[in-house]
What we know:
By secondary structure, the protein is an all-alpha fold. Helices cover 36% and strands 0% of the residues.
Amino acid sequence: WTLGLLTAGGFKEGTDYVCAQAPTDWGKPGFILNSDSVVFFQQKDPDYVEGQKLLASTILSPEFQTIFNQTKGSIPARLDVDLSNGFNPC
């Protein structure tokens, strides 16, 4: 999430900060995995179920994934989101 804060603050990669792979002792690149989770509890009320479906489809839409992940400085959960426009190279 630091990357999102740096981007929002107007800092530029390569000028104000650098990206680097995490050091390891096994000779291969290391990465930090951070995952966002959304949990829906089983509901009996059909209105709640439809609300959960609507929220899930909104969260997983390419548009939301783009805005959300550009803001927080990470990559989308979807593989079909274009990373060439507005995503930080880090």
